[in-house]
Specification:
alpha+beta, Outer membrane efflux proteins (OEP), 6 strands
Length: about 425
């Protein structure tokens, strides 16, 4: 995998433009040229347009809005009253009014702790978005590789179809010359028909791979898309222990849970400050009829009296929540460790299989086919020998393509488990 993690970690916010549905979509799919994308471009597009990521971004925005609401200063209050003296001969001359503005301010440390709680909630939501971005990047890379594998199969099948046509022509020439029986011609034609049927089946595989990739990119499933990159054998893997150490510092699940622990700690501290007073400020103007208005300013405080230990219960609950998160964090660390080691083992095995097929099986299968075909031309091999060698070669090519796809998929999964692309880590590789 050769993409930069900053694209994975970026909080891309571009929304996909609305597209027509139904029959109009089909018309557009046939009218538009195929979109040619590299693996990195596909990942960038998925990070920008994937519908699930758009949902997650809205959830982060909601968390930020709640943070603003929870940490804002209390709104001031406006009060007023109108008083009159009963039994007075002139009611208007014995009336008065009061107008006041009041504001209740929490104790400063309470305000700071509320900021910490809200900030931790927002950070946890943002790390959740980062986690989903990493998963989407990995899934997109794997879907892209699935398309490449299907296209690689198509190229191999086209080569096989060409070989089958060539062999059918040679068999026909030899049959016309009386060198081989008609049965060889029939076998060659059956093999050619099978090659063409395999090509038809591959068309379905390519279409399904395109649809899966388009879904991740937030595009209509029937839109044309082509891969600019080709399959390649991935490089050697870094040491598993080094990757585990890195993952424990970079996995967004761990970072998000750490922020939740910080928020829980702030919540406990906030609950423990129940005896600290909230301060009330007020300014009042008295406007009695016939007298000049007077202003009254006051400052006061309020302290709750907890006769039934409600606040103690809240403190105890918050402390238990802290311990719960501590246990969850320890368990998550173990899960991340296991995840990295399991995906590393899978990636190492897949890489070994791809290298073996590339260096051992595939060259031997190609040589065996060439020898059988040459020998058949000289009368030393039968048509069945050639057909068997050709099938073995096609099978080896298909296995190699699948192995390359599996090796790249496993590497993408390992990068998801680590939380970073392997090329940027600078850790030692396994021998």
């Amino acid at each position: 995998m050769s993409y930069h993690w900053k694209q994975v970690l970026a909080l891309a916010g571009t929304a996909m433009a609305a597209v027509p549905r139904g029959a109009s979509c089909q018309r557009d799919a046939t009218a538009r040229p195929a979109l040619v994308l590299s693996r990195l471009e596909a990942i960038d597009s998925a990070l920008a347009h994937n519908p699930l990521l758009r949902v997650a971004r809205e959830q982060v925005a909601q968390a930020r809005a709640r943070g603003v609401e929870n940490t804002a200063f209390p709104d001031p209050t406006l009060s007023g009253d109108l008083t009159g003296q009963s039994g007075a001969t002139d009611f208007r001359s014995n009336t008065g009014s009061d107008v006041g503005v009041g504001l209740t301010l929490p104790f400063p440390t309470k305000f700071l702790l509320r900021h910490r709680v809200s900030g931790a909630d927002v950070d946890a939501a943002e790390f959740g978005l980062v986690q989903l971005q990493q998963q989407t990047a990995s899934q997109t890379a794997q879907a892209y590789d699935a398309l490449i594998v299907a296209l690689r199969h198509r190229a191999d099948l086209l080569e096989g179809d060409s070989l089958a046509k060539d062999f059918e022509r040679k068999t026909q020439v030899r049959f016309s010359a009386g060198s081989v029986p008609r049965l060889d011609v029939l076998k060659a034609r059956v093999e050619l028909a099978q090659a063409q049927n395999d090509l038809l089946a591959n068309q379905r595989d390519v279409a399904n791979a395109r649809a899966a990739l388009n879904r991740l990119l937030g595009r209509p499933l029937g839109f044309g898309i082509e891969a600019a990159d080709s399959l390649a054998t991935p490089p050697e893997l870094p040491d598993a222990d080094s990757l585990v150490a890195i993952a424990l510092t970079r996995r967004p699940e761990l970072l998000g849970l750490a922020r939740q622990r910080a928020g829980a700690s702030a919540t406990t501290a906030l609950a423990q400050q129940y005896l600290l007073p909230d301060v009330g400020l007020s300014l009042e103007k008295n406007m009695a009829r016939g007298a000049p208005g007077t202003y009254t300013a006051s400052i006061g405080f309020s302290v709750p009296l907890f006769f039934w230990n409600h606040q103690r219960g809240e403190v105890a609950e918050s402390k238990h929540h802290e311990r719960e998160l501590e246990a969850a964090y320890a368990d998550l660390q173990a899960q991340v460790d296991l995840d990295v080691r399991a995906t590393h083992a899978a990636a190492a095995t897949a890489l070994q299989q791809a290298v073996y097929l590339r260096d051992a099986l595939l060259p031997e299968a190609r040589r065996a086919y060439e020898i059988a075909l040459t020998s058949y031309g000289l009368g030393g091999s039968s048509a069945l020998d050639v057909l068997d060698a050709r099938r073995t070669l096609l099978e080896a090519e298909g296995q190699f393509a699948d192995a390359l796809g599996a090796a790249n998929d496993a590497r993408a999964d390992l990068e998801r488990a680590v939380g970073s692309p392997l090329e940027t880590l600078g850790v030692r590789h396994e021998d």
